[in-house]
Write a structure and sequence with these properties.
By secondary structure, the chain is an alpha/beta fold. It contains ten helices and ten strands. α7 links the parallel β7 and β8.
Length: about 240
């Protein structure tokens, strides 16, 4: 479904991605782990067109999307949940969901809203509450639901467990699995909690200094001595 080949991207003179190769097959959950500053978030943002790739190729369902504007990429069926949630704090929950539905056809809105409320009952309870007054976990749920309102086939999740309490974090990972299985949405997950990410993932990649340095199944990476020392020991 997604094929990234030789991707390079930079912020001014600083090259953040240095020839990245990644594949995500339809129906998979694929995790990308690595230290802060490795280039993980930049990869997700470059897939969505900002920053623009300096060189390399991004394909979605066999179509070259490397130079497409972001709004066209979203309309093709890719949605991103950015790091830090970034809900619209002065808009209500319902208004946030309406913003998320913009790329989809109007005729789907009522059904999609019912589907999201069935999956996340707390959002229906708080539909008229401002997004900024929700708890951190509720804001993360809202950010995911907002992305689902665009009817994506590929969901890019950037650090969905960041700053959440352990029980809330566990629920977020359960939600990700549910979206993948019941909604048939392919997931590309960037996550610093390597243990939970690799347990959840079909396959994974390890990134360091803008390059992919290791790949394998989730189980293989969990068992890898280097991965354990760098990302798993000490919790």
């Amino acid at each position: 479904m997604l094929k990234v080949s030789g991707l390079r991207a930079a912020y001014g003179p600083v090259e953040a991605l240095q020839g990245v190769d990644v594949d995500v097959d339809a129906g998979e959950i694929v995790a990308l782990i690595g230290a802060n500053g490795a280039g993980k978030s930049t990869l997700l943002m470059t897939i969505c067109g900002a920053p623009r790739a300096r060189s390399g190729r991004i394909e979605f369902d066999g179509r070259d999307i490397t130079r497409l504007p972001t709004f066209e990429i979203v309309r093709l069926g890719i949605a991103q949940v950015p790091e830090g949630r970034r809900v619209f704090p002065h808009m209500t929950v319902l208004e946030n969901l309406q913003i998320g539905a913009t790329p989809a056809e109007d005729s789907y809105f009522d059904d999609d809203l019912d589907r999201v409320f069935a999956m996340f009952p707390i959002l229906e309870e708080r539909r008229h509450q401002s997004g900024g007054t929700l708890s951190g976990g509720e804001q993360q749920v809202l950010a995911i639901a907002r992305a689902l309102m665009s009817r994506p086939r590929l969901l890019l999740l950037d650090e969905p467990s960041l700053g959440l309490a352990p029980l809330v974090m566990k629920r977020i990972f359960e939600i990700i699995k549910e979206i993948n299985e019941s909604q048939e949405v392919t997931i590309f997950l960037v996550e610093q909690n390597a243990y939970h990410a690799l347990r959840l993932a079909d396959r994974g990649y390890v990134m360091a200094n803008g390059r992919i340095v290791l790949k394998g199944t989730g189980a293989e990476l969990l068992a890898d001595e280097g991965v354990r020392k760098a990302y798993l020991e000490g919790g």
